[in-house]
Amino acid sequence: MKNIPLYEVRQISTLKEMLNDSVKIYSDHAAFLVKTEEGGPYKPITYSKFRDDVNALGTAFIDTGLGNSRIAIISENRYEWAVTYLATVNGSGIVVPLDKELPVSELKNLLIRSKADAVVYSKAKSADVESIASEIPNLKYLISMDISSKTDSVYSYNELLNKGYELVKNGDKSFLDAEIDNEGMSILLFTSGTTDKSKAVMLSHHNICSNLMDMCSMLFIGEEDVFLMLLPLHHTYACTCGFLCQIYRGCTIAFCEGLRHIVKNLKESKTTILLTVPLILEAMHKRIWDQASKDPKTLKKLKLGLKISKILKAVGIDVRRKLFSQVIDNFGGAIRMFISGGAAIDPQVIQGFQDFGIHCLQGYGLTECSPIIALNRDCDYNNGSAGLPVPHTEIKIENPNEESIGEIIAKGPNIMLGYYENEEATKEAVVDGWFHTGDLGYMDSEDFVYITGRKKNVIVTKNGKNIYPEEIETLLGRSPFIAECLVYGKTGEGTGEIEVAAEVYPDMEKVIETLGSENPTLEQIRKLIDAEVHKVNKSLVLYKYIRHFTVREQEFEKTTSKKIIRQYK
């Protein structure tokens, strides 16, 4: 479909303007749903209250000596994280969101590299932060989200907040009137990877605001929508698409209590849209079918329902949400859309959720792009693709091969200012304004972008054939017996040829159920996986065949955004 009008969005040039305008429009609407006690009910925090908290904390920061400063945040997802973020960037400071899962040695390194003046952190990180504070040259302020009053060396977030309210009440406008340079660095983000390899991405208000306007013009998100905040906020995908976007559009954000509480939290918050990653969606989709498979009658009913709904939908009658109300109830009953990002997702999973009446789509982006450069629209989508370029962003395929596959490069107002204190890496990544993503792919005649894999992951055979591990991983991942897998190239013994190999983490629940044994042997597991590998090989051309596989006993190590950390063989 072409020429479908974009959704109307309001113009914003800074995140300060965004917040203030949202408060004018959505004043008493719930911006957040928070829990004050574990397992307790969600309680709303209005847009007005959120803005007042941001203004109070920002005013206190400036009064304390943190105007034009670099403020790091290290904590789990929580309301105070959101307040601290905007209190920093909306008062002319620079925010440095850090991954709370990093070991203390890496946190120390990143705090030094970012020249952080202050760290705002939660109780869970207090031992780590306070143990390294004296070793970080620029660090002057430690601010705890959880202590009630200031100690000799640590400030209390709550005391600062109360102090800020008092200052504003008495006429302090230092924060309220602080001017924002929307082209200057306001956000410093470290890409995933080891400390030595991670790069620090510099983003501006202009970068983020342009991306918010562009993606919201492609996808309808409104004030009736409730998002469950599941992914870690330090990651750009979660921060821009799961926090700032919602504040821009007047939605409500509910904080998830943890992965094992997803179902309960979806129901309690009446979540309508879940922003997530492929690993979680694929596991949820598998679980639906696994549960149905346990009862032949349920399985038959589900398959029949899908046939009926497809026939009716073909003649303009949509009964999916009625027919599959039980599936929808498992996701809280109000869910209308899943948005997947962070990595490519199996198109069959997207289609599977759509067949149940839950719209599912994916987008594509990188930290360096604020992050979104391509997105499937709710009214114009292709399940096999990463989406269409967002407005004002150009996408090109550089040096395409005979299959039209080349490196994906992008240019637009969302492209980063550069890598902090790394001019060489910046010049390598951004050439004449074009950001080189490091991803390989192609575009079709309708401008949909397809990603075949990471440039550095490609397996190149001796006769010059390119094999994209991600393609084979998707096929293997469809097996009920494979929970996770990783495909790589290895030199064949005796042949010297580059051959495809796979490392597999089996779904032991399914393996045990199928074999009827609580303690299956490695040989039995290998036999099951071997049959699945043969099935996949039948769908591949000869040079892509999986020639070797190993079975691992533990899950793969992952980033906090649930991507498998690829250890190069």
Describe the structure.
The protein is of the alpha/beta class and 569 residues long. It has three domains: 15-180 and 219-272, Rossmann fold; 275-333 and 336-455, Rossmann fold, CATH 3.40.50; 458-551, 2-Layer Sandwich (GMP Synthetase, Chain A, domain 3). Helix 2 (47-64) crosses helix 3 (79-89) and helix 7 crosses helix 8. The longest helix has 19 residues, at 296-314. The protein starts with 14 loop residues before the first helix and ends in an 18-residue tail after the last strand.
Annotation keywords:
18 helices; GMP Synthetase, Chain A, domain 3; Rossmann fold; single chain; 22% strand; 569 residues; 27 strands; 36% helix; alpha/beta; 5-stranded parallel beta sheet; 9-stranded mixed beta sheet
The quaternary organization reads as single chain
How big a fraction of the residues is strand? 15-25%
Strand order of the largest sheet: 2-1-11-10-12-13-14-15-16
Unreliable sequence segments: none
Quick description:
This protein is of the alpha/beta class and 569 residues long.
Secondary structure elements and pairings:
Layout: H1 15-26, E1 30-34, E2 43-46, H2 47-64, E3 70-74, H3 79-89, E4 94-97, H4 104-113, E5 118-121, H5 126-132, E6 141-144, E7 154-156, H6 157-169, E8 187-190, E9 200-203, H7 205-218, E10 226-229, H8 236-249, E11 252-255, H9 262-269, E12 273-276, H10 278-293, H11 296-314, H12 320-323, H13 325-330, E13 337-340, H14 347-355, E14 359-365, E15 372-375, E16 388-389, E17 394-398, E18 406-411, E19 418-419, H15 423-429, E20 430-431, E21 434-443, E22 449-454, E23 459-460, E24 466-467, H16 469-477, E25 482-491, E26 498-506, H17 508-515, H18 522-538, E27 546-551
Parallel strand pairs: 1-11, 3-4, 3-5, 5-6, 6-7, 10-11, 10-12, 12-13, 13-14, 26-27
Antiparallel strand pairs: 1-2, 8-9, 9-19, 14-15, 15-16, 17-18, 18-21, 20-21, 21-22, 23-24, 25-26
Helix pairs in contact: 1-8, 2-3, 2-6, 7-8
